[in-house]
Each structure stands twice: as structure tokens, then as C-alpha cells.
Amino acid sequence: MNRLAIVIPCYNEEEVINETANRLKILLKRLIATKKILDTSYILFVNDGSKDTTWDIISDLHKSDKIFNGINLAKNVGHQNALIAGLNFVSDNCDIAISIDADLQDDINAIEDMIDAYAQGYDIVYGVRSSRKKDSFFKKHTALLFYKIMKLLGVNTIYNHADYRLMSKRAIKQFMLYGEKNMFIRGVVPLIGYKTTKVYYEREARFAGESKYPLRKMINFAVDGITSFSVKPIRFIFIIGVICLLFSFASIIYTLISYCQGNTVPGWTSVMISLWFLGSITILSLGIIGEYIGKIYSEVKRRPSYNIDTILFD
Ligand code: UDP
Ligand code: MG
């Protein structure tokens, strides 16, 4: 039997956390009773610098039952870093860890299937959404676009899998060796290379509160994911540059021929078009190169991704 840790990043989740805690506790007790996991299994809440009463609720939960533990990050570091903090923390205190969102949009009944898959020898088990019926039109389509772009750029991610997954202790230890600061977990986990499998579940709507991933964070997340894994955008710009160069050669020949024939026209339109076109390409290229330079910049600084303020754990 194994000691299970459930890691839950929480940011301003006061509306959902008690309910989540209750449902998971019932599930854990059942799994313990049926001898699927050890009775030392527990839930770890990672409070990601919430501005509401989330941490107070976590402290109360910890007082009520030691199945609930928590770490309080000193400030908001974002979902991915909060998750890394949690996994890093549990890696010495569990045999398997499952990460799940606080809002239980991911069906907790898949946890049992994940544990069964682990028992069959899989080190990493991905929770995959079989449908997104309950997601908003916007969320569904932006998510789809994101996976498509990632695929196009050659980044290996699991389709319709978010951060709901089981990892064995050794998979987590290996994962922690990836020292990059702009960690895109979904892209790194498939690089670990242990035996993996998937379990399917229905994605539910958030049962309370609203998404902590506004458009701004979603775009940041997507840009991070793409630029930390793919250099194709640079190659794409390079190809556009080559095509533009060919075009300009053609236009030089055309201009020279027109000149020799004596058809000297003012040419204002073509000048303006080239000016704008090349101008925009230049700016675009600079933007993309800047994105990569920004990455290098933040990597070389080697700042810690998180800083734990308080620990409730025993
Ligand atoms: N979250 C976090 N830090 C943040 C934003 C979100 O820890 O800065 C947590 C949040 O509490 C939740 C999970 O990340 O447990 C996923 O967030 P959410 O459910 O809002 O995202 P969505 O399901 O809308 O993609
Ligand atoms: Mg959610």
C-alpha cells in the first residue's frame, strides 16, 4: 500500500475550499477503508497568496483533522509555481501524489482509477477530460486553439489534460531536476519518460466562485508554454524574412526594367506599402526575439520560484 498526497493549489478559494475538503476527505477515508492507500495519506493545500480567508479556512481544517495540511506561500506566484511548491514539499512525504484544482472541476472519482493504474506499474497517470460540455464557449475554444498551436509548434502535450495527474515519488523527484524557472508543467512531465497512461473523466462546471484564470493569465500561460518549449516562432519569422527578401529582389528587377523603359512613376503607393510591411515585420521579429531574451533573462537570475511563509504539517 502507498501513502497518497493530494496537492491542491488555492488562490482566493474561500467559497469552495470547505466543500472540496469534505468531498476529498470522504473519498480518502473510503480508499483507506478499502485498503487502496495507507491511513497516513493526506491532503495538502497550497495557499497561493490568497487575499481572502482561504488560509484561515485551511488552518481550521488542519485543526479539525490532521488529514488536512497546508503550506502558505508568502505571495501569489501563480498556479504552476504553487503546484511546484506543493509537489516539492510532498515529495519526501508520500509514495504517490495527485494534483487537482480547488474547484473540483475535475471529477474526484478518477482518483481511484489513477491509483489502480499506479498499482499496475504506471509512474504517471494523466487525467484527461472526455468532454468540455460544462465549460463556457470561450474557455472551450481558447483551450482548443491552445492545444492546436502547441501541436503545430511541435510541443508534446497531452490533449485535454490540465494539471490533474498522479505522479509517483520517483517521477516527482525526476521532475524537480528540471530547474527552469518558467516551468510549463504540462510540457515538462511528458519529458520525464516513465511509463504513463491516461484516465478519462467528465469536466464539470466550477461549483462556486469564478475562474482564477482571467484572459490575461490565460494568454501569459499560453505564451509561456510556447516560448519555453518551441523555437519554431523564430524559424517562422526567419522564413518570412527569406520570402520578403525574394520579393524585394523581384521588385528591384521590376523597378529597374521600368526605369530603363522610361516609365518613371511617382511610386508613392509601393513605397508606402513596403514601408509599412517591412516595418511591421521588423517590429514583430523584435517582439518574438524579445520574448526569448526575456526568458533567458529570467532564467539567468535564478530567483526562487516560491517562498514558504508558514508550514502546517505533522
Ligand atoms: N490558482 C492558483 N494561483 C493563481 C491562480 C489559480 O493557485 O494565481 C489555482 C486555483 O485556486 C485553482 C487552480 O489554480 O485551484 C485552477 O484555477 P481555476 O479553477 O480558476 O482555473 P480554470 O479552471 O478556470 O482554468
Ligand atoms: Mg477551475
Could you provide a short overview of the structure?
This protein has 314 residues and is an alpha/beta fold. 51% of the residues lie in helices and 16% in strands.
Structure description:
The model has no long low-confidence stretch (mean pLDDT 87). An 8-stranded mixed sheet has the order 7-5-6-4-1-2-3-8, sandwiched between helices. The longest helix has 34 residues, at 268-301. The two termini are 20 Å apart. It has helices spanning 17-33, 54-64, 79-90, 110-119, 137-152, 169-176, 185-192, 215-229, 232-261, 268-301, and strands at 4-10, 42-47, 68-73, 96-99, 124-131, 161-168, 196-202, 308-312. The chain is of the alpha/beta class and 314 residues long. The protein has 2 domains: 4-212 and 304-312, Spore Coat Polysaccharide Biosynthesis Protein SpsA, Chain A (Alpha-Beta Complex); 232-301. The structure holds uridine-5'-diphosphate and magnesium ion. The site of uridine-5'-diphosphate (UDP) has 16 residues, from strand 1 and helix 3.
